[in-house]
């Protein structure tokens, strides 16, 4: 656990006074109890103290804050819903935490142009509900949608269980309002479906993890809401067959809205945690494949179901379960959605490795992970977005791990990354780099690419005040 | 016509000698007849003389050339298939034209991971044919696919008739090999479906029009080839009804693989040029809407056809024509594909404005264009990718236009851009900025955005040697 306990305000008085003028007294907070909650996110048990929490209400206030902090060289860490798992919102160099929570308005939904404009502090689930009511759909909410913010989703280029059909956050971002570290407010793109004008600043900011600018508004492209859904669950005796079935589904072109793989190790930990009878959890079954099918007509859904069923049947002799009601779907997905909770029960924590590898490497990757973890005596649970080659590889260890255990886990992480990178993978498919994965950037990127990224960071943020210690600097 | 006639080699002898060492004598060309063809592209009748044509065979040779040119501050204009219509490949500051034509290998097609690696000088149609043979599909070839290069498609973020279903080039680029102006060779991304590691250099280079680096290899994501296609053609008495039908198709979620609108003015010019009976070309019909439907099963295709047909019937009493064979499709699309040729017949030329506007602005945009053109006595043909709000607005004028006519056309262009920009549009949906549209960048972008783009250009290309005079500098 990395932490320091000194929480005295270390900023010049003139800065604090100016912050109060910009945001109003109420939104400049030094109460240490409140600050404590803003010094952590969902990344392990990391906590960092800092000086002042500000909750600006407009892009203009944020511009004022950044100008001030630039002048005084004060670190500013932007914060969304605090759902990040790589430490992107942690104030590692003290200074100011800038919460976007007051930028929570849905500015407008356009039902002809199929787009929505939202402030970046809107909770993802609220966005989804609002556009759903207008007959539209934001199809790639992350699993953290109930509390993550739209701005954080964009900053991390968040993935979704449905990314295999619909892509990641990036594919829906048309335009961003961003406050640059120097205090300029810009729009990066335009609210149109095709745009070949100038460098694509929209995509440069998307996934830049709050180190190039603070996103204050997001324009998302939307799709008409798909009306017909069902889930399928298949159990496999052999992991190899489950992986082969997934490849066959990709080849078919069916395009399910989820293709999740759950390996034996993840099944076991979740089943033990839930301690109840669960569908297709037996001694012989060593892998689950879960599909969501989403189509715009009942006919299409039935056709997709038959095709997907026929493919799965080629690779398993077990029953294939179908769920159409909400209750049935919850039952099929219950094991999958309890893996995380299971891994943290009993005074444990986990390190979530969210590598992405080419689909052709999926099976050898899992076998290699198992071998590495076995060699070091580390418990692992492998599951996730298999069709995209993006697996959560969760290393479980004691919440109060001693140095030896921490070291063992670190060694396993390093070996897993080495294998993934040597086989065409990347160190993050959807969580981003943040603080936690920064040490591995030089494993993935040669010096020339890293230098280019650092130069871009310096260009946007010459004094390095914005979210320092993250991604590349 | 902007041109200069001086075509003497103006480079230091040591530079020419070093180029010969790098590329081999054969690929360093000074023959003025050959050079002439490389001094123009498809942009109006523009031609620019330059000093030397080089045809390197590898990324390493290109790196050597760029290092040399950086040292001697010599402009380098990269060139693909020469199909650009905004002058992106024109050597406006003389120096070297660097043709990518020898980088023409399809490096590999991966049928499990659904991606293809190609050198940037591969002709787009050759790429499409090769992946089709492997059961896969690159779904967004531009209309120039028969001679445009893959690298040029990426550099311009080319659009396609099928972009309304599949997106633009950008959505398929996973990874790029790029030679930076300083001579470094980098890969920008990784060959995986999800990637949240570092700044997205891949998307920064995509659409950067050869001013940030020279693309030498492209990794495209592919999709399983859709197996069932048909075309529909509907004629409308009123343009307004045609536009309303297009909006209704978008609302339905059918997702056709083309939704083209052809306005009366474009119909007339193409019909006169073809001088033969054409489907649904009558006095009463003032707009055509052409759809391509592409689905993975016959059932889906029939369902989509019925739905699309029902929507079109709500907005027109005219017959709706269907084409399933290649020959039938050619007949339905004949008028659409002859508009360009029609506009250049009879010693005429055209300026292609490829604005994109929000779909809600499509109808008022066309009416405004008609009014502007009528006021200035300029012939216009409006047609194109209506569902995306991306219309080709072709202003026809005399190939040997006098100054007054050139001025009139320029005035019309300016007024059209003003209207589009004031209504949320952009100056290019798919052609890019290049040389021709650079003067309009400051209309679309406020100073802060433009400054940021210029700073990015300077960061990548400190001496400004790469494709000077384009996009932003």
TrEMBL record, chains A, B:
Keyword flag Metal-binding: no
Cofactor(s) needed for function: FAD
Domain FAD-binding PCMH-type: 45-225
Oxidoreductase found in the keyword field: yes
UniProt keyword list: FAD, Flavoprotein, Oxidoreductase
InterPro entries listed in its UniProt record: FAD-bd_oxidored_4_C, FAD-bd_PCMH, FAD-bd_PCMH-like_sf, FAD-bd_PCMH_sub1, FAD-bd_PCMH_sub2, FAD-linked_Oxase-like_C, FAD-linked_OxidoTrans_Type4, Oxid_FAD_bind_N
Xref: PROSITE patterns: FAD_PCMH
One Pfam assignment: FAD_binding_4
PANTHER family from the UniProt entry: GLYCOLATE OXIDASE SUBUNIT GLCD
Protein name: FAD-binding oxidoreductase
Species whose genome carries this gene: Chitinophaga nivalis
């Amino acid at each position: 656990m990395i932490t320091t306990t000194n929480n005295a305000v270390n900023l010049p008085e003139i800065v604090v006074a100016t912050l109060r003028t910009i945001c109003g007294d109420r939104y400049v907070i030094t109460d240490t109890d409140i600050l404590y909650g803003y010094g952590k996110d969902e990344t392990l048990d990391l906590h960092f103290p800092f000086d002042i929490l500000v909750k600006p209400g407009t892009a203009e206030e944020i511009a004022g804050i950044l100008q001030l902090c630039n002048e005084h060289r004060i670190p500013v860490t932007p914060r969304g819903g605090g759902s990040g798992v790589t430490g992107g919102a942690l104030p590692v160099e003290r200074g100011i935490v800038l919460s976007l929570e007051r930028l929570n308005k849905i500015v407008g939904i356009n039902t002809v142009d199929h787009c929505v404009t939202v402030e970046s502090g809107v909770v993802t689930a609220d966005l989804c509900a609002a556009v759903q009511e207008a007959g539209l759909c934001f199809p790639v909410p992350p699993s953290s949608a109930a509390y993550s913010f739209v701005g954080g989703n964009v900053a991390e280029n968040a993935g979704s269980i449905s990314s295999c059909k619909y892509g990641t956050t990036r594919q829906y971002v048309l335009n961003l309002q961003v406050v640059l570290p120097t205090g300029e407010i810009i729009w990066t793109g335009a609210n149109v479906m095709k745009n070949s004008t100038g460098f694509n600043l929209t995509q440069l900011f998307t996934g830049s993890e709050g180190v190039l600018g603070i996103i204050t508004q997001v324009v998302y492209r939307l799709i008409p809401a798909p009306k017909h859904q069902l889930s399928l669950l298949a159990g496999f005796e052999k992991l190899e067959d489950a992986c082969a079935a997934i490849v066959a589904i990709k080849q078919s072109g069916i395009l399910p809205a989820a293709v999740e793989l759950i390996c034996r190790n993840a099944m076991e930990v979740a089943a033990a945690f839930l301690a109840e009878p669960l569908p297709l959890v037996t001694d012989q079954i060593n892998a689950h494949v879960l599909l969501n099918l989403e189509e715009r007509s009942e006919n299409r859904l039935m056709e997709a179901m038959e095709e997907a069923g026929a493919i799965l049947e080629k690779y398993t002799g077990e029953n294939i379960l179908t769920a159409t009601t909400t209750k049935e779907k919850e039952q099929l997905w219950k094991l999958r959605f309890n893996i995380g909770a299971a891994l943290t029960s009993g005074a444990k924590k986990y390190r979530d490795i969210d590598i992405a590898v080419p689909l052709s490497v999926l099976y050898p990757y899992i076998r290699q992970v198992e071998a590495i973890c076995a060699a070091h005596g580390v418990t692992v649970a492998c599951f996730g977005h298999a069709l995209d080659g993006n697996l959560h590889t969760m290393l479980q260890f004691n919440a109060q791990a001693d140095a030896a255990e921490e070291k063992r886990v670190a060694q396993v992480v390093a070996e897993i990354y080495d294998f993934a990178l040597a086989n065409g993978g990347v160190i993050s498919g959807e969580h981003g780099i943040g603080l936690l994965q920064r040490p591995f950037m030089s494993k993935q990127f040669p010096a020339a690419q890293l230098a280019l990224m650092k130069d871009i960071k310096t260009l946007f943020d010459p004094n390095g005040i914005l979210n320092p210690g993250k991604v590349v600097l």
